[in-house]
Specification:
The protein has one domain: Alpha-Beta Plaits (2-Layer Sandwich), CATH 3.30.70. The protein contains 3 helices and 4 strands, in the order E-H-E-E-H-H-E. Strands 2-3-1-4 form a 4-stranded antiparallel β-sheet. The protein is globular, with a radius of gyration of 14 Å. This is ABM domain-containing protein. It comes from Pseudoalteromonas porphyrae.
């Protein structure tokens, strides 16, 4: 049986990152993610008080998560997104999905 995986990445932006530039880079990264097989869903959120972001991506399999992660470091669009992030703040964790409901768009 194949297990779905949730990838959770927390990070902060570099101090000199322009928010408009970040939104453009995020949209480009989202387009990259949308084209990847095995990706179910991505959500990006920001905690207003700490300025910390959380990026959550749902994958079909652990192999899909690894493949996209490997591609991230090779893809120019992904690296433009990564260049805006404070490297020391990045924390990445994978979780095995034990239970889930269907995702419904509003």
């Amino acid at each position: 049986m194949t297990t779905n995986v949730i990838e959770v990445i927390t990070f902060k932006l570099n101090n000199d990152t322009d928010l408009a530039q970040f939104h453009i880079a995020n949209n480009t990264f989202q387009n990259f993610i949308d084209k990847q097989p095995g990706v179910f869903y991505r959500s990006l959120a920001k905690q207003a008080e700490t300025q910390q972001y959380i990026d959550v991506i749902y994958f079909a399999t652990p192999a899909d998560a690894k493949r996209v992660s490997d591609m991230f470091f090779e893809n120019e669009q992904c690296q433009q997104f990564a260049a805006l992030i404070e490297k020391q703040s990045v924390q990445l964790t994978h979780y095995e999905v034990l239970s889930q409901t269907a995702c419904q768009q509003s």
